[in-house]
Amino acid sequence: MKGQKLILPLSLFFCSLICSGKGYFEWTPALRGAYEKAISLRFGEAETELAKIRRDDPENLMLLHVENYIDFFKVYLNEEEEEFETLEPNKDRRLDRIEKEGDKSSPYYLFLQADIRLQWALARLKFEQYSTAFFETNKAFKLLTRNTEVFPSFMPNKKDLGILHAMVGTIPDGYKWAVDLLSSMEGTLEQGRAELEEVVDYAKKNDFIFEQEIYVYYAYLLLHLDNDNEAAWKLINTANLNPSQNPLDCFIMANVAMRTDRGDKAIAILEKRPVGNQYHPFYYLDYMLGLAKLQRLDMDANVFLQRYVDNFKGRNFIKDAYQKLAWYSLLHNDGKGFHRYMDLCKKTGFTVVGSDRSAFNEAKSGDEPLPELLKARLLFDGGRFQMALDVLKHRRTDDFMALKNKLEFTYRMGRIQHKLLLYDDALAHYQQTIILGADQPWYFACRAALEQGHIYELEHKYELAKAAFKKCLSMSPDDHKTGLHQQAKAGLRRLK
After folding, report:
1. Which CATH number is 131's domain given?
2. Which of 375, 427, 446, 484 could pair with 475 in a Cys bridge, judged by C-beta atoms 3.0 to 4.6 Å apart?
3. Of the candidates 164, 149, 75, 151, which has an alpha carbon nearest to the alpha carbon of residue 115?
4. pLDDT (tens digit per residue) in 443-494
5. For the segment 91-126, what is each residue's pLDDT rounded down to a tens digit?
6. How is 58-87 classified by DSSP, letter by letter?
7. What is the count of structural domains for the chain?
């Protein structure tokens, strides 16, 4: 009997040794295919392939990563809280399986846990779950740091850490308390840039599954933190993106085009965006096309903006889209339409993102933009600088009665002259904006100081650039403060 009593415990012990850690991580051709379909938003096809992998290769835990990409994109693009709550338990199930079954000797063991947490942290921001997002990001940061200690040359690690280090290094002072309180993250812009550059160089020479991701990350760092528009556009054009076949690629290329003053190029990209039942709906592309067309003063701009608000059931850019529809109405002498859309701007949507907050504040104020200033702004935002200048060149500051309109005029003239490389004129208009508007609630003076810093930095007048960036940080406008301060702080980091 004693021998029989020993058989069961021993068998359970050896079974546990055999069964634990049996999962492995490998990017097989089948999983690569599923991943590529997932990041092309062809979720039905990706899920069909994943079902086959679960049957034929169930111990390959890389499939959990691809599953998570699909859930992440659904939540991030749809912005529907009920769907978020339905899908969120999948995160813990995946993490639990990786921890219990995964091969701990693989660099993917900790990386997948970190990357899955980062995706859900990003999704939480859509629903203003900031504290939990910070905690998850901090956990991911710790996992990536541990993984780097064991696998210092593992490039997927550097992909995630690079962007985290850069972002932590440029967090505005007003938000640093949250990082200090809720996390142990630290890093600098220089550190993040160096890591991302290393991964980009690696991707150019090797077969790297995350090649497109790293190009996008680095392009956005160049765009938002390095203030290098041309380098960002050049890089994104070497990333092997296929905007006519992949809605995400379409979004990325059009977004960078719009942010680098290539409005016509953005419209051309968006007009060729892929459509069909095989793709998950991506209504934001309609919003982008409507906005880009509005900036060109196209007659059909309203069609795409209306399509966005009619179809999208999420949270963000609803107020902004209604504001743009109101602007369209104003430019077409439809006063009733302007007030109807501004009323909808006040009543619908959320104020999580800066452009929605700005739209809501304008609607709430009851102020009606001057068509002349509005037209110049739209043409400028679309990269049509000479046309914008032609609208305003015969005007003077004293032509405008309201202080806000005076400030918008001097600010807009500065921005236009800046883009036309008329730096002395731009600096003079920026300075006038700062003098008139430093204590006002609008963003014009704060942005003018930031742009002064950019000109001085370009002219190698580094002390003047530092003073301008610090001036930007000293102002607290009602709109766009966080983004402006982040850029100013990045400027100071570049000049150290």
Report:
1. 1.25.40
2. 446
3. 164
4. 999 999 999 999 999 999 999 999 999 999 999 999 899 899 999 999 999 9
5. 999 999 999 999 999 999 999 999 999 999 999 999
6. TTBTHHHHHHHHHHHHHHHHH--HHHHHHH
7. 3
- Identify the CA nearest to 169 among candidates 192, 196, 199, 202: 192
Same structural domain for residues 328 and 413? no
In the numeric block, the tokens 């059931």 are attached to: 313
Q: Does 286 fall in a domain?
A: no
- Whether 406 contacts 427, CB under 8 Å: no
**Are the CB atoms for 223 and 259 separated by under 8 Å?**
yes
Domain that holds residue 136: 22-210
Can you tell me which residue has the tokens 């007009």?
271
Do 378 and 398 lie in one domain? The reply is yes
Given this model, what pLDDT does residue 168 score? 81
Q: Letter for the amino acid at 313? A: K
CATH number for the domain spanning 409: value is: 1.25.40.10
Neighbours of 276 (CB within 10 A): 6
Q: At which of 186, 210, 234 does a domain end? A: 210
Q: Which residues lie closer than 8 Å to 364 by C-beta, 6 or more apart?
A: 346
177 and 133 part of one domain: yes
Q: Which of 368, 385, 409 is the last residue of a domain?
A: 368
CB 189 within 8 A of CB 225: yes
Kindly state whether residue 273 falls inside one of the protein's structural domains. Answer: no
Q: Above 90 in pLDDT, residue 180?
A: no
Kindly report, residue by residue over 370-416, the tens digit of the pLDDT. 999 999 999 999 999 999 999 999 999 999 999 999 999 999 999 99
Amino acid, single-letter form, for residue 391: V
pLDDT of residue 13: 42
* Torsional class of 297: left (φ above 0), alpha (ψ -120 to 50), beta (otherwise): left
Three-state DSSP class for residue 198: helix
Instruction: State whether 59 and 199 are in the same domain.
Output: yes
> Is 393 found in the same domain as 340?
no
- Write down the pLDDT at residue 167: 82
Question: Running DSSP on this structure, what letter comes out for residue 226?
Answer: S
